[in-house]
Every structure is written in C-alpha cells, then in structure tokens.
Fold:
Amino acid sequence: MKINWKVRICNPQFWITFGLSIITPLFAYYGITGADLTTWGSVWTLMANALSNPYVLALMGVSIYNAVLDPTTANLSDSQRALAYVKPKRDDFNDNKY
Structure:
C-alpha cells in the first residue's frame, strides 16, 4: 500500500477530512452537539470515553480508512501519478487545455 503521505500531510483538505473522521462518529454515538462541549473538561471526558469504547474506536477506524482511501484507484495505493506529486495538485483552468 503506497500512499504519498508527504503530499497528503501538506493538504488542508486531508486534515479536515481526518478530523471529521474522528469527530463525526463521536458526536453520532454519544449524541453530542457543539453546545455540549463548552468546557475542556467535557472534551477530555468525551475523549476518555471514546478511547475506552471499542465500538467507537472501530467506527473512527473505518472513517479514517475512508478518509485515506483514494476512490479513484482500483486498489488501496495511490496512482503512480499521485505518488509523483511533490505538493497537492491544483487544477489550472487558465492553461487553455479546456
């Protein structure tokens, strides 16, 4: 499984997706809303509860797997083209190719 981690780590979209992969299962399982997390104590309690719950950890694991997986490839690895990137690719619609 070859993944271009250097490029993914530099991409803010990866971190947003990764963060949502952790937060969404927590909020769904525990029925949490943003209003419930008004103190750092409540945040740490939620994290401690999540880390001690195998089901929640499995939900987060599946979500993280889905965040890392590139659905445009046939296997679990990045494409050869994506492995060659040195920074996240941006579409340039001004290069007259379209």
Notes: Helices lie at 5-10, 12-30, 40-51, 54-68, 80-83.
